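Hi R.,

As promised on Friday, here is the backbone we talked about, encoded as structure tokens. Could you run it through your design pipeline when you get a chance and send me back a sequence?
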């Protein structure tokens, strides 16, 4: 017969161990589908960060990985297979896979990585994630760090894609004591004229991510504008810095994967993706092109050069 003392001891043990137990540990074999849009290093680094974080949390996941090399039809086909597999979560790397998962698997939670802008995820009910675009405040604060004498920022943009973003950028620039001069571009033929107008009034050209303005066909015009007018161009990625932009902000891709892993754990705990606000990158790296700096007579501090991720 159990005595009162023994019963009380058992209750205390249950409460103690219950309180000390981990808040969450996924069942072994937690099924997670992964849509990988490219074999490029950033995709692999982000995936490694995601899987490494989940492993550290004690989640013994069973990964179902689909690679489709940017092919939208293959991505949609992969999503159809995922729907039959019983996956609890889809982790997407790249915009093509994210779009396919959000549209074709609305009942499966999606955590997205390596998509351009996080605000696009806020309009969905079954997805959250981390966008690549740094907040405008971050971009302009780095501009002031890299180019402390610059006061007037020029930008060319397609209003259909970036009208609201440029309006927000102008407000933020004013708050930082800067001014933004913006030129609308609706066709490729408009670019030379827009750049010529900016050459008369700006200290720096800001490379706002824009499918029309920063297309491969326009790259040559933008970089020649920078060299000929000795106006530094801020590239939207390290590829632009390598090609001739003065500098670009870059990403810690592994940490982007870790950020997504943190969101995934919350989803596996029971949170709905719509309850988890999409995020922006929390780490900022950068690349510098010293040849460009020398050509357009811009001095970058030695301290900034030492801390650069890439130097060209």
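Update: got your reply. Pasting your designed sequence below so it's all in one thread:
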């Amino acid at each position: 017969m159990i005595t009162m003392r023994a019963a009380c001891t058992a209750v205390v043990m249950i409460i103690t161990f219950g309180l000390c137990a981990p808040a969450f540990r996924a069942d072994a074999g937690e099924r997670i589908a992964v849509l990988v849009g490219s074999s490029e290093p950033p995709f692999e680094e982000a995936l490694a960060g995601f899987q490494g974080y989940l492993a550290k949390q004690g989640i013994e996941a069973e990964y179902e990985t689909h690679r489709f090399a940017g092919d939208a039809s293959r991505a949609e086909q992969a999503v159809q297979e995922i729907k039959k597999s019983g996956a609890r979560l889809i982790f997407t790397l790249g915009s093509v896979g994210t779009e396919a998962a959000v549209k074709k698997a609305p009942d499966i939670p999606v955590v997205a990585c390596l998509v351009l802008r996080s605000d696009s995820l806020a309009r969905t009910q079954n997805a959250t994630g981390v966008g690549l675009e740094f907040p405008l405040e971050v971009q302009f604060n780095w501009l002031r760090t890299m180019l402390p004498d610059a006061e007037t920022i020029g930008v060319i943009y397609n209003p259909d894609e970036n009208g609201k973003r440029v309006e927000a950028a102008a407000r933020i620039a004013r708050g930082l004591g800067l001014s933004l001069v913006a030129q609308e571009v609706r066709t490729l033929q408009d670019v030379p004229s827009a750049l010529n107008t900016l050459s008369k009034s700006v200290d720096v050209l800001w490379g706002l991510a824009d499918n029309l303005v920063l297309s491969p066909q326009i790259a040559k015009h933008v970089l020649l504008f920078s060299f000929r007018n000795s106006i530094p161009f801020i590239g939207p990625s390290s590829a632009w810095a390598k090609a001739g932009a003065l500098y670009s902000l870059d990403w810690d891709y592994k940490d982007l994967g870790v950020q997504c892993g943190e969101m995934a754990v919350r989803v596996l705990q029971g949170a709905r993706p719509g309850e988890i606000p999409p995020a922006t990158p929390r780490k900022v790296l950068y690349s510098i092109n010293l040849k460009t700096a020398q050509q357009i007579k811009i001095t970058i501090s030695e301290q900034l050069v030492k801390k650069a991720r890439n130097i060209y």
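One thing I noticed while checking it: The longest strand covers residues 30-36.

Thanks again,
M.
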